[in-house]
Design brief:
alpha+beta; Beta-Lactamase; 2 domains; two-stranded antiparallel sheet; disordered C terminus
Length: 277
């Protein structure tokens, strides 16, 4: 799978924001240390002092407070790690995230730039469900409505979600063959669908080339949360007369980038494995 998020430099920590009216210096230093612990591999005191630019007595004092409050842990060798308490706080924050609210600004930007319909959907046991749609103001709009269900195998949104499922699960999710035929271009076998999903994994986006609705094309990319789980997908759709074959690579890259932005806001970070080796 193509990865696009670059791993941060493990030896540097982003500089603290310029002090202003509401900036509390010691809190800024504490947050810098938490960032450094996250980016470094079980650092010791001197490494954290160097990474944050703080002297060792100050670094030790703040670290001692972080450990005492349960936000960091120190082992017998003097190495620091983030604690489970931060994970618990993150999980609580993630539980309060509404996908529609979080995705809406990205959808609005796409809608304004592309002038086509932008869709947001989530997976269910019976297929996908549209939870938000910004319809194109141009003629020849698509038929989907919020709350409407659609199939995994024939829609770009569904195939984008399938690309994040284990390959062995694809056949289980979509049901027995022959798969329901929506148009003359619908994929009807598990093997054909798996080949298409493999291509989605390579490109980072899925294409529905008149497979779900005659005369329409759609491109979609998956949305990943902080656990690495696919919780939905975002797409752009329009009539085949406007969403022409020559536009597909550009539209695909645009929807993939939009999905990356939403996924990062959901707490997902995907690092380039090759760079880490």
């Amino acid at each position: 799978m193509v990865t696009r998020v670059i791993q941060p430099d493990a030896t540097k920590v982003a500089p603290a924001p310029a002090e202003g009216r509401y900036t509390i210096a010691v809190l800024t230093k504490a947050f810098d240390l938490l960032d450094a612990i996250a980016e470094l591999s079980a650092p010791i005191l001197s490494e954290l002092s160097d990474a944050t630019g703080q002297n060792r007595p100050t670094t030790l004092r703040i670290l001692s407070n972080l450990v005492a409050r349960g936000y960091a842990e120190r082992d017998r060798e003097g190495r620091y790690r983030l604690s489970v308490k931060l994970l618990q706080l993150g999980s609580r924050a993630a539980a309060g995230i509404d996908l529609r609210t979080l995705a809406r600004p990205v959808m609005e930007e796409l809608h304004g730039d592309l002038q086509e319909t932008i869709n947001l959907a989530i997976p269910t046991d019976q297929g996908i469900v549209y939870i938000d749609i910004l319809e194109s103001e141009r003629d020849l709009r698509m038929a989907a409505k919020v709350g409407m269900r659609d199939a995994f195998h024939s829609s770009a949104l569904g195939k984008a979600m399938l690309s994040r499922f284990p390959e062995s699960r694809v056949g289980v999710v979509v049901g027995p063959e022959p798969l329901p035929q929506k148009t003359g271009k619908t994929l009807l076998t598990i093997a054909a669908l798996q080949r298409d999903v493999a291509r989605v994994r390579e490109l980072g986006y899925a294409i529905d080339d008149e497979e779900n609705e005659p005369g329409s094309r759609c491109l979609a990319a998956p949305l990943i949360d902080q656990r690495g789980a696919c919780i939905g997908a975002i797409s752009v759709s329009g009539p085949s007369s406007r969403v022409t074959p020559d536009r597909l690579p550009g539209l695909g890259a645009r929807i993939r980038d939009a999905a990356d932005i939403i996924s990062r806001r959901l707490g997902y970070l995907e690092f380039d494995e090759a760079a880490a080796q």
